[in-house]
Each structure stands twice: as structure tokens, then as C-alpha cells.
């Protein structure tokens, strides 16, 4: 609802007024407005409401007419490894453990900052093009991804990944602590980039190192994230090593809390779901990656019904092979129905919540994922003239089931337009094509493929 003002009141200044045929607000009431507009000032949404009303009451420095378009909040990718765009299509059609140990890890061990930067910029371009405005990352030399995101205008939460065993990046888990502190200090004053503590998984980092890293997250007051219960094979490894299932390992160490975001949670029991809900622990669902690696189908609706905050992520481009949140939204809804044998499970509104407000909580950035007064001006537009979006009976349904991501015609973060009608405003995409070709030759040379 807009607030009326006396007719003789002077118009209120704003930086930008965006007009659209429809706006999916994702506010607390999940309002969908038609013939509406958004007034933006100082990187925030000032007001959302009827276009004629806002047009009369605001003196806009700039206007953006998105007639024939639908606005919705920028999508939030709750789990990805952005530089893994370099390995897109490199090792397909393999189960998780064979994929990791036999193909991905050997190539990753040889990546340098230059290659990681190219992969990160490629990832940023794909996110911007498909309407994602914020992401939770986990990889190596994370300052490279942070610089890429900041320069491109995207929001990011960075997690420097580490294992218990020696890697080319850290000889021990503890050796990563100083890097995490340095990363947090580097981006502390960046409005777009934050950090998280990121042990790889319960089967690659022992309980004592998981606990120590959580203490570091608490000391720095930043999120803590890890892969967990991704597949029955992972569970078997944990049982063999520690005699405990993955969730039980974390529970015993006191590592279930609202600060924690767990990625995948495919192989979880009903009792474990209740533990996640009671502790306020966040979960990110990765449907495309889980299907491609044949890890299983996460019991998403059961977790939601128990009160677990479940976000949505793409995982990396080597296990997806896209960073397109629209595809994962659709898959989350469709898989949820089959997993629970219920056509009403993980409905369109739920899937959109997962890709916006729920994922925002997983990032520790709960103000994202909505178009509402006082919240960040992060939003995207879909072209409703696309044949697959006509006619319109339900805008939310179209966003989840009909859109492909290629209908995105505008991406905005903090009031700045990053992409508009095919033009990338913060990236040299033609130059990236040449760099991607160079990277593909490098991957072939080091992998022998």
C-alpha cells in the first residue's frame, strides 16, 4: 500500500523511479502489485506502490520504464563455487566421490589466482545475466572472487575452503585461520562483500577442526558453512571414521545453530530434521547438482514443515552445469513433489521463497530477497513478452515454472543497473570469451583430456 500525502506537498526526491507491469514484492504479505513502481534512493527502496501515485509524489533524478516487464527481487544463490565455471562440462556423468577424487581435486590443486579470477568473472557474468544478485561462495584464494564480485557490483559472502589433510593451499586446517582473518579484514568495509568460515565437509575435516573453525566464526561474528549429508556414500564414510552420521557429528560438537548453513542435506533422518529445526540451523537445497551426481533427493518439504529455513543454490558449474537459479527453482518444485509424492509439495511460492528470502538468511543477510521500503534495491526484470510467459494468470507461477532465466532483461544491485537489454555494464563479456578459451586449453593440458 502507498501512503497518500496532501496535494500541495512538494514532490519527494529519489534517485530512480522504476515502472513495471507487475512487481512480485516478496514482502511479509507476499504482495504482487500490478501497474506499479519502485522509488529508489541511497541504494535502498524508498517505496513500492501504484505507479500513478508514486509518479505524482516523487521527483526522480532518473526513470526506468519497464512496461511489459515483471519485477522481482534479485535471486540469492545460497551455495556455489564460482570459479568452478572453468570446469563446466569437464567431468560429467560420474558419482560424487569418483567425480571429486578422480577428476576435480587433481585439477583444482593446480589453479592459480589468474585462472581463478577468470572463472570468478565468468561466474559473475552468468549470475548477472540470469537474475542472481547475491551468492554464498566457497573456494580457494577467495579474495579473487571477492574482488570480481565487488568490481561487477554483485553481493557475495566468501568462504575460504579448507580440509584436514594437506592441500596445495593449506598444510593443515589451522593454517587457514589467518587467511580467514585477513579475508574478513580486507572486505570489512566493502558494502557488497562479506565472509564466512568454510570447512569442506564432515568427512574431510575431523570434528575437532570443525569445532575450532566454528569458534573462529563466533569470534569474527560471521556465518559458518559446510557441505553435509550430501549422499549416502558420505554418511558411510562418516560412520566408518567416527561411528556417527554427519548431523550427529555436528550436534555432538555444538555446531548446530542459526550461524550455521549446511549444504545439501540429502541423507537426513526425521530425527535429524527435528534437530536442525530446533537449533535454527539453515539448509541449502541444490537440486540440479544432487540429481547430476546421483546423490539423491533432499526431503525439502519435510524440513520446511518442521520449521527448517531451507534456501536454494546451484552448487558449482562443474556439477550443475549452470549457475541459473531459475532452473534450480523449477527443479526444486518439481523434485519436491516426486520426493514427497504430493503435487502440492514445494509449491511455486515456496520455491520462490527459497530462492529469495530463505537463501538471504542462509547468507546471514536477511534484508535481501524482497522489494520493500527500507531494504536494499536489488531487483531484476523479466520480459513478459517472451512467448513462454504469455498469457499471465499467476506471476509467481511464471517465475518458477515458466521462466528460464533468459527472459531477464534487467539486473540491479543497490540501485545500480548491472545489466539492461543485453548490455553488461560492469563486465567485458567479449574479453571473457577469449580468456575462457585460454582456460579450456589449460584444463585439457593438465588433465590429459
UniProtKB/TrEMBL annotation:
Pfam families found in the cross-reference section: Amidohydro_1
CDD domains: ATZ_TRZ_like
Gene3D superfamilies: Metal-dependent hydrolases, Urease, subunit C, domain 1
Keyword Hydrolase applies: yes
Alphabetic keyword roster: Hydrolase
Statement: the UniProt record of this protein carries the keyword Repeat: no
Domain Amidohydrolase-related stretches: 70-417
Name assigned to this protein: Amidohydrolase
Organism: Pseudodesulfovibrio karagichevae
Lineage, uppermost ranks: Bacteria, Pseudomonadati, Thermodesulfobacteriota, Desulfovibrionia, Desulfovibrionales
Amino acid at each position: 500500500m502507498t501512503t497518500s500525502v496532501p496535494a500541495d506537498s512538494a514532490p519527494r526526491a529519489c534517485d530512480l523511479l522504476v515502472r513495471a507491469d507487475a512487481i512480485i514484492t516478496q514482502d511479509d504479505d507476499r504482495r504482487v502489485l500490478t501497474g506499479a513502481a519502485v522509488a529508489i534512493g541511497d541504494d535502498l527502496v524508498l517505496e513500492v506502490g501504484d505507479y500513478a501515485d508514486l509518479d505524482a509524489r516523487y521527483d526522480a533524478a532518473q526513470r526506468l520504464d519497464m512496461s511489459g516487464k515483471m519485477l522481482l527481487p534479485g535471486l540469492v544463490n545460497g551455495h556455489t563455487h564460482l570459479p568452478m565455471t572453468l570446469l563446466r562440462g569437464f567431468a560429467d556423468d560420474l558419482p560424487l566421490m569418483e567425480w571429486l577424487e578422480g577428476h576435480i581435486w587433481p585439477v583444482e590443486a593446480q589453479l592459480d589466482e589468474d585462472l581463478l579470477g577468470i572463472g570468478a568473472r565468468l561466474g559473475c557474468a552468468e549470475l548477472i545475466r540470469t537474475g542472481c544478485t547475491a551468492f554464498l561462495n566457497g573456494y580457494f584464494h577467495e579474495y579473487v572472487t571477492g574482488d570480481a564480485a565487488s568490481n561487477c557490483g554483485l553481493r557475495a559472502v566468501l568462504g575460504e575452503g579448507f580440509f584436514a589433510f594437506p592441500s596445495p593451499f593449506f598444510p593443515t586446517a589451522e593454517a587457514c585461520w589467518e587467511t580467514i582473518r585477513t579475508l574478513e579484514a580486507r572486505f570489512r568495509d566493502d558494502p557488497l562483500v562479506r565472509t564466512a568460515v568454510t570447512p569442506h565437509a564432515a568427512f574431510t575435516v575431523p570434528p575437532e577442526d570443525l569445532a575450532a573453525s566454528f569458534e573462529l566464526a563466533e569470534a569474527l561474528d560471521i556465518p559458518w558453512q559446510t557441505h553435509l549429508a550430501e549422499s549416502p556414500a558420505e554418511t558411510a564414510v562418516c560412520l566408518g571414521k567416527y561411528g556417527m552420521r554427519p548431523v550427529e557429528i555436528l550436534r555432538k560438537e555444538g555446531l548446530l545453530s542459526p550461524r550455521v548453513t549446511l549444504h545439501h542435506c540429502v541423507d537426513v533422518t526425521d530425527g535429524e530434521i527435528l534437530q536442525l529445526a530446533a537449533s535454527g540451523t539453515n539448509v541449502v537445497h541444490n537440486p540440479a547438482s544432487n540429481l547430476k551426481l546421483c546423490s539423491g533427493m533432499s526431503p525439502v518439504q519435510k524440513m520446511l514443515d518442521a520449521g527448517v529455513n531451507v534456501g536454494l543454490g546451484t552448487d558449482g558449474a562443474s556439477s550443475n552445469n549452470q549457475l541459473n537459479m531459475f532452473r534450480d527453482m523449477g527443479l526444486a518444485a518439481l523434485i519436491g513433489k516426486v520426493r514427497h509424492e504430493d503435487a502440492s509439495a514445494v509449491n511455486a511460492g515456496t520455491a520462490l521463497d527459497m530462492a529469495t528470502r530463505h537463501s538471504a538468511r542462509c547468507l546471514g543477510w536477511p534484508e535481501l530477497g524482497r522489494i520493500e521500503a527500507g531494504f536494499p534495491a536489488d531487483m531484476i526484470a523479466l520480459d513478459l513478452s517472451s512467448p513462454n510467459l504469455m498469457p499471465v494468470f499467476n506471476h509467481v507461477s511464471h517465475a518458477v515454472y515458466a521462466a528460464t532465466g533468459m527472459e531477464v532483461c534487467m539486473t540491479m544491485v543497490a540501485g545500480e543497473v548491472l545489466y539492461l537489454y543485453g548490455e553488461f555494464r560492469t563486465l567485458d563479456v567479449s574479453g571473457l570469451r577469449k580468456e575462457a578459451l585460454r582456460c579450456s586449453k589449460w584444463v585439457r593440458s593438465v588433465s590429459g583430456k
